[in-house]
Amino acid sequence: MTTNSTDDVLLDVRGLDVDVLTPEGPRRVVHALDLTLRRQGTLGIVGESGSGKSMTATAVMGILPETARASGQVLYRGRDLLSLPARERRAMAGREMGFVFQEPMSALHPTKTIGAQMAAPLRLHLGLTRRQARARSAELLDLVGIPPSRGVLDAYVHQLSGVCASAS
Question: What is the pTM of this model?
């Protein structure tokens, strides 16, 4: 049963504006965006190319380009991320929050296995051993409906398509 209490809210974005400095002056690329992500919830952001999806995600993560500025409120577990010092924000990255870029050719490295790429942040941010990180990676794949028994952890990006298609 889902509740509507504020305790159930993981991410609450209110009035998010993102401005990018251009040679012609500032240009607003995200305007007054509101969104809420509840614990155990799923949120999709869809839109045309250039509609601000990536700028929204990078603003939430605190990884906007130097020429961009965000304003409004980005509340993660009740803390306003936009008001946090960069050091505190970086400490949250990887451990509590993550970002996978939408460009498929840069999201995963072509010469490293899927398992190695999944395990690296688990080891870095959670201090897991190689064995623990591999086991957790298998759990995460299973959680999203990709059976690790299909050899996904030892596969490379170019091998993943057929493995995932046959998993469904």
Answer: 0.68
